[in-house]
Amino acid sequence: MTTKxxxxxxxxxxPKTWLWVGLGVVGLGLIFALAYAISGEESLDPSIGFKEVxxxxxxxxxxxxPNAGDPAIGMVAPTVSGTDWEGNEFTIGPDGRAKIVVLLxxxxxxxxxxxxxxQSWIDRGGLPDDVDLYGVTxxxxxxxxxxxxxxxxxxxGWTSPTIMDSEDGEVALAYGLSATPWYVILDGENRNLxxxxxxxxxxxxxxxxxxxxxxxxxxxxx
Length: 222
What we know:
By secondary structure, the protein is α/β, with parallel strands linked by helices. The chain has helices at 15-42, 109-123, 149-155, 170-174, 201-218, and strands at 54-56, 79-83, 89-92, 98-104, 131-137, 162-164, 182-186, 192-197.
């Protein structure tokens, strides 16, 4: 009798089969990761970068040529009222106190450079008692870096009273925003003493304080 040897019915997958299986697993992983990232972006509500504001008065004109000076010096700036991200209410208006108002965009590299300088200067007592400093978050964009603006400012230890602009940019328009950061110096009657754009550093802050204090002492009373 002839005995036939039966071959095993179990065959090992060819190496190429394992390659395709591995690529499929990796591909699924990438798809899930991409879907997670996209869903995370979509879940970030753009409205968290804005608040309602009230603006009363005539807007300061835009500075067309910064090298030629500010054409609106002496003009009364609008009174601006609004809140920060925690609902604290602030008004920037004619209250008898000199002010520096800085308009900040969270994605602006010059703003990102100046904010820690401003905060360090304040922490070291650079801001005198007779001058106030206000922040305004403007041009918020959920698709750009450091959004939302409140998280960025809190990470820098920001302590100045801050108003969040509306989606329509009403505060930016009120101060004639031309670029960011945008510094506006106001006297006690809310008269514009000058507007400056760009990262000013500590020397610029000191110069603006001197302008604000001089304007406060010479400002006429109603």
